[in-house]
Design goal:
The chain is mostly beta strands. Helix content is 11%, strand content 35%. The strands form two sheets. A four-stranded antiparallel sheet has the order 1-2-7-6, with no helix packed on it. A three-stranded antiparallel sheet has the order 3-4-5. It starts with 14 loop residues before the first helix and ends in a 17-residue tail after the last strand.
Amino acid sequence: MKTVLFDSPFLLGFDHTRALIERASKAAAESYPPYNVEDLGDRRVRITLAVAGFTPDQLSVTVEGRQLVITGEKTSEDKTYVHRGIAARGFSRAFVLDGGLEVEGATLDHGLLHVELVQPEGSDAVKRIPIKTAG
């Protein structure tokens, strides 16, 4: 029997969150390409993926809703290998982002793709809702 998350009547509208958690757990099971997530302090995070052999035009970094998606597409090569230990397959790796987290940029450096994220100041501020009268 599968445990149902967010089934409390006090947690309204969390169907999207449940779907995000399921996607995140599926993505966590994948191991290619290897990656690091580094806390840079001052509300900044860096995700680094090992993408040796990929060129910038073979890589894509997109944000779809609250999901950061990094993909790599390899073109076929007409080479014959005696041994092939460097993976040359395409990939898609997704990261679920906090609502206020924004992608600042991406850099490819010596086979490592660095994606910089920042949480702007005031993104966790309290929002006061005005109360109207009926009629």
